[in-house]
Structure of Penicillin V acylase. Cysteine peptidase. MEROPS family C59:
Amino acid sequence: MCTSLTYENSRGDHFLARTMDFAFELGGQPIFMPRQQEISGDAGTFTTKYGFIGAGRNLSHYIFVDGVNEFGLGAAALYFRGYAKYQQSAPADKLAIAPHDVVAWALGNAQSVADLRELVKHIQILDVPVSLLGLTTPLHFIFSDPTGDTAVLETTNADLHLIDDPVGVMANSPELNWHLQNLSTYGTLQAAERPLQDRLGYQLPTQGPGTGALGLPGDYTSPSRFVRTVFNKHYSEAAADTPSTLTTLQHLLDGVTIPKGVKLMADGTSDYTQYRGYACLDDRVYYMEPYDNQELQGIRLTDEMLNDWDTPVEYPLDHTPHVKHLN
């Protein structure tokens, strides 16, 4: 049901990546949203100040689930079933926002995570369904910017505030603080081989490299994906530039990518990774990697787009598998 992580390479560039895991076919694609757009959201109309690019779909209006804006603020929405609590109405002094409109509102109005900490005090997220699914989506959100500041918004009550995310990883339910506490269960795991002691005078033969991670959970539940992503992010070799960073992020997401058929829902449908998204926060570039084509497909947020374009632009994805033959 989705995993997200932030990453800083050895050059100091920052990234936000995610898997989009869902059983219902969402049909998302890269979309550019220009500056100064009036969006007729499902809970109320709001205006954006800043341009951004991200994964979304045009239903009654453009809905985004992740992306990056012109200041390098990145955002991603992940499922938060059983914990998200929304209000039925908003006070007169607060802007009413539907859960599925939060990403577009944030990317369109905040310059940084620090900026967003103040802005969320002036909105109220309401219990309003999204037409594509016919239900109110239980969501929480991760935000990060080029300073490395990373925080999570969890709608567990009417009081909205950002929670610092010290590990830069988010999955699904339970809350972030529960996941952070759960990490202590696996705090002795390490990348190096763990030497074995003798037993009753018998020297146990080593099982070789990898014994330091014995006990690392390998299933697809949210707690296991969170722990696995933190472990792999912590021990992965630092990448030096953007191409190698994107490759590293692909490998890190491989650890939580769900193939079709291995995680079944109650109705028999398969919850699987429909795409993986990568936001280069410093360079303002967004990449999508659909399930059926593992070639990264990117859109750079250019000054021309920001200054001269006034209409949203959709970029259809290439779903053809790319195979290179060497003979």
